[in-house]
Amino acid sequence: MDNVKNTKKVYDLGDRTFIFAKNVRLFIKTLPKSIANNEDSKQVIRSSGSVGANYREANEALSKKDFMMKIKISRKEAKESGYWLRLINETNDLENSNTALELIQEATELKKILSAILEKSK
To answer: If 80 and its partner were Cys, which of 7, 30, 47, 110 is the partner (CB 3.0–4.6 Å)?
Structure first.
């Protein structure tokens, strides 16, 4: 990713979700200043951070029900992150649009991984 560190795939999901949130923040710093970008940036920063935060909470769950709920929230936040990144990418003429597309892809992959965890945990 342009201007984004740690492009090598990480297979530990806790680390991978952390790197995703970090890379979103680094990408956001490159955006042109506008009211829309400011608001969309706040949203994607929250949702991208929540992916990993909820995944970590799931790993400390007190019950299977709690685990499933935290994984569902993490998956929802990954999906939401992809939405905000797509909106930012499609409403700006970005020189680093490829970085946005890579982050959107990572959000999609995280969502799929979390969906697979949910399926296997049933």
So the answer is: 47
Two tokens at 34?
A: 């506008």
3-class SS letters over 32-101: CCCHHHHHHHHHHHHHHHHHHHHHHHHHCCCCHHHHHHHHHHHHHHHHHHHHHHHHHHHCCCCCCHHHHH
Residue 96 near residue 31, CB atoms below 8 Å: no
Q: What's this model's pTM, rounded to 2 decimal places?
A: 0.90
d(CA 59, CA 27): 28
**Tell me: the pLDDT tens digits for 95-104?**
999 999 999 9
SS3 assignment, position 29: coil
- Domains of the chain, with CATH numbers? 13-121 (1.20.1440.60)
For the chain, what percent of residues have pLDDT higher than 70? 92
The answer to whether 47 and 86 have CB atoms below 8 angstroms apart is no
Position 3, amino acid: N
Separation of alpha carbons 19 and 10, rounded Å: 9
